[in-house]
Design a protein that fits this description.
Helix content is 53%, strand content 11%. By secondary structure, the chain is an alpha/beta fold. It folds into three domains: 105 residues, Nucleotidyltransferase, domain 5, CATH 3.30.420; 90 residues; 119 residues, no CATH class. The strands form two sheets. Strands 3-2-1-4-5 form a five-stranded mixed β-sheet. It has a two-stranded antiparallel ribbon with strand order 6-7. The protein is globular. The N and C termini lie far apart (89 Å). The C terminus is likely disordered.
Length: 351
């Protein structure tokens, strides 16, 4: 009986053409060029599977369409590995770089089992992440619109009232006669943009709330004082599977909250790496401020890192955010709610 030969395929994927490098177990190389879209690529890979026969491993870099390709290739029976672009030192440090070379190096890394893997969550989680980031962009657009309205008022020396974005404040804005006819057009357009932005945000948040209701882990993280639904859903969506982290400390590294290190003889630590999703990093940092105010356990950790030095406040805040992320990972892994540490309270009357 003829033994089936394993083949390793490295793909350098683009929207209009894909370069493929095929290696067998003996290191023999065959190059293929697949013109066409991503859907054409799936069709050609299906035909290639029938041509080669036997088990096939496929590797390509993570990109905007990598999730869809992953699902299609897995359905065809391929063993798929998605490479992390930022960790492909073999490609990015090379002085000789083109599609053919990149595909060959991906195939070689796959054959050597040295591909730096990127986590590929299920399609539903990927869509959840995309909607969370879409809402963040809508909120940014709304904030920019508010800034433009304030700039318009400052241009004619008008001091806005308190609560400008309430119904009363918007009614006050609508009757400002010091604006010229040209400025009034700008004001009307900005007010309409602000109202439309609020409707879009409400629509997205309604869908996010419905989806989060199906995820008990979101409610679990919201037991932490200061952690709201927006922070909880973002952390759950990006952690996805808590067991994929080798240890609890890896979570801070994944979200870029660990310091850079440049150590030769003496240990030198710099600013945080800022790897991973910046949205989660920002949300957890904002939640850390609220947790410091509301929970004595978090506040004690913050003060212990700050050491009474006001210049260490930012360092202590980032350390607290890192601590919260590790706690969130442990809660998701073990399924336990937040527990505030008991502190000894001294009764003045008993002293």
């Amino acid at each position: 009986m003829r033994r089936l030969v394993m083949h390793y395929i490295g793909l350098d994927v683009h929207s209009k053409v894909t370069m493929a490098c095929i290696l067998d177990e003996c290191g023999n190389t065959v190059e293929r060029k697949f013109p066409g879209s991503w859907r054409d690529l799936v069709t050609r890979m299906k035909a290639l599977k029938k041509e080669l026969g036997g088990p096939i491993k496929v590797c390509y870099e993570a990109s905007s369409c990598s999730g869809w390709l992953h699902d299609q290739f897995v359905a065809l029976g391929f063993q798929v590995q998605v490479a992390h672009p930022g960790k492909l030192r073999l490609i990015f440090r090379s002085k000789h770089k083109n599609d053919r070379v990149d595909a060959a190096k991906l195939a070689l890394l796959l054959r050597l089992d040295q591909v730096p893997l990127a986590h590929m969550p299920p399609a539903e989680i990927r869509q959840w992440r995309a909607l969370i980031e879409f809402r963040a962009r809508l909120v940014g657009q709304r904030a920019a619109c508010k800034c433009r309205i304030r700039a318009l008022l400052r241009s004619v020396a008008i001091v806005p009232i308190r609560g400008l974005w309430t119904k009363k404040g918007l009614a006050w804005l609508a009757v400002q006669d010091e604006l010229s006819s040209l400025q009034r057009v700008q004001r009307e357009m900005l007010v309409h943009e602000l109202a439309d932005g609020a409707k879009r945000i409400n629509m997205v948040e309604k869908e996010l709330k419905t989806f989060a209701a199906k995820m008990p882990s979101v409610a679990l993280l919201m037991t932490i004082p200061g952690v709201g639904i927006r922070t909880a859903e973002a952390v759950v969506a990006y952690i996805d599977n808590p067991d994929r982290f080798r240890r609890n400390k890896s979570v801070g590294c994944y979200f870029g909250l660990v310091p850079c290190e440049d150590t030769s003889v003496n240990i030198r630590l710099g600013h945080i790496t800022k790897d991973g999703p910046s949205l989660v990093r920002w949300l957890v940092t904002e939640a850390a401020w609220m947790a410091i105010r509301r929970d004595p356990t978090v506040r004690a950790f913050f003060e212990r890192v700050m050491k009474g030095d006001p210049d260490r406040k930012k360092i202590a805040l980032i350390a607290t955010a890192h601590h919260l992320l590790r706690v969130m990972h442990a809660m998701l892994r073990d399924g336990t709610p937040w527990q505030t540490a008991e502190t000894e309270v001294t009764d003045p009357a008993a002293a």
